[in-house]
Write a structure and sequence with these properties.
Length: 449
């Protein structure tokens, strides 16, 4: 653990130094063997990358006066009507998989273990957000823990006194480790932010848990409701691969068609469903209408199924007007033929969007590069928005769920209660349900809502 009190916050000027600090402060055994790997490249998001703008001088963090942290003041759940206490300093703990023991910190060899890069990028983005909040007057004690993505290690970390005194925990990054940490935080009235997990299980009646990354269910809801509201769609063709994951995805989308967006009355929408087992073009065409627009949702994560369907649908598009909607991970499939996406008026959802013309994104990218020596990847960008939004709300008493939807630099935020059933009186937890709908046009993605 690295404890950083009384900012400025900068722990590192590069990835190597972040890991070096772990050895200096945590005191890992010197005899622990290290595994070497070559330095990995930045995570490829396959989305537009901010182009380097003219040089922007990085802003220097403002040094703040030192004051002791306020102890034993806990935030209150949403249902409470008691006034929230005002704090001068907030205790923030990060639980991230740095894998510090797997890195060689020799000055002659700056190789970084590949699995460390995600946590490093995430924390560097978070650091940018914390410095910005500091300039706005917030003060923090930052505790940084290496989880090693290990359940036993996380259990040990939860016995740390500084963790118990946290106002907010950010992490773990992987869903398998979330339920135990969520239970710990619930029992101690500590807010827990899950920053990257899109699938949350085993969290019940926990008003302190915030899933900052929209779930897959939120993506599917966005697809159905967008077709209803924006295109006036009353029927669409749903195609899923003949495998468990695709079939479960199709089931969930079908269930969503029986509900309407909150507070809105929409024309009922229905889906004709096909289980794809390499049907011919003519068999698929039998479901299409040559006189009207055909909305097709392909509920598949199988690369072979996706590419085979795209080829057949692209050929059919010469005779039928087709609007195709895919799943939120399709932008990561390098084998997809982009000409097919253009021909099929392709749409997909995303929790994150990079716009090369956005000045705020350009400025963040340049400031990040000036600070860390490279442009930010997807995880740094997401961390910047999530930490700035969630940690920033601590000063407002964590009224995340009572605020209007808002936009970050790369992501949007709309915190809503998440319930297993519609008739539940209380939420199981809270989730960011804000999702972009992107359209592929002129060989580029653009948000259309």
């Amino acid at each position: 653990m690295i404890s950083v009190q009384n900012l400025p916050l900068r722990l590192s000027g590069n990835k190597w130094l972040v890991l070096c600090l772990f050895f200096l402060f945590v005191g890992f055994p010197a005899c622990t063997p290290h595994k070497k790997t070559h330095k990995s490249s930045t995570v490829n998001t396959n989305k537009p990358t901010p182009k380097p703008p003219p040089t922007i001088k990085p802003e220097k963090p403002t040094t703040v006066n030192t004051t002791p942290p306020v102890k034993d003041i806990k935030p209150l759940p949403k249902e409470s009507t008691q006034p929230k206490p005002t704090k001068s300093t907030f205790n923030i703990s990060f639980l991230l998989p740095f894998y510090a023991n797997y890195n060689n910190l020799s000055y002659g060899n700056d190789s970084i273990y590949g699995k460390s890069l995600l946590a490093i990028s995430f924390y560097q983005g978070a650091e940018m957000a914390l410095e910005e909040l500091q300039r706005k007057g917030m003060r923090f004690n930052i505790n940084l823990y290496d989880t090693e993505n290990n359940s036993s290690r996380i259990s040990q970390l939860l016995s740390e006194a500084n963790v118990a005194q946290s106002d907010m925990l950010i992490g773990p990054l992987y869903s398998k480790n979330i339920p135990s940490v969520a239970s710990y935080c619930q029992s101690r009235n500590i807010y827990l932010v899950s920053p990257l997990s899109s699938k949350i299980n085993g969290i019940y009646d926990n008003p302190y848990f915030i899933n900052a990354s929209p779930s897959t269910s939120s993506h599917y809801e966005k697809i159905v409701h967008f077709l209803q509201k924006n295109y006036g769609c009353q029927k669409f063709l749903l195609i899923a691969g003949n495998n468990t994951k695709d079939m479960q995805t199709a089931d969930e989308i079908i269930n969503i068609t029986f509900t309407n967006p909150a507070g809105e009355r929409q024309t009922p929408i229905r889906a004709d469903r096909i289980t794809y087992v390499s049907q011919s073009q003519s068999e698929i065409a039998s479901y299409l209408d040559p006189a009207n627009t055909n909305y097709i949702v392909v509920a598949s994560y199988d690369e072979v199924v996706i590419n085979d369907l795209l080829r057949k649908l692209a050929i059919l598009s010469s005779d039928y007007d087709i609007v195709l909607v895919g799943m939120p991970t399709w932008d990561q499939i390098e084998s997809i033929n982009l000409d097919y996406l253009e021909m099929l008026k392709f749409h997909m959802t995303s929790s994150y969007f990079v716009n090369s013309d956005n000045m705020l994104q350009k400025q963040f990218a340049e400031n990040y590069k000036n600070k860390f020596g490279d442009y930010p990847d997807e995880y740094a960008c997401k961390a910047y928005d999530i930490v700035r939004y969630c940690v920033g709300e601590l000063k407002n008493g964590m009224q995340l769920y009572n605020t209007m939807p808002s936009s970050g630099t790369f992501s949007k935020f709309d915190i809503q209660p998440s319930k297993r059933t519609l008739n539940q009186s209380k939420a199981d937890y809270f989730e960011n349900k804000a999702v972009y709908m992107l359209k592929y046009t002129d060989f580029d993605f653009v948000p259309i809502d």
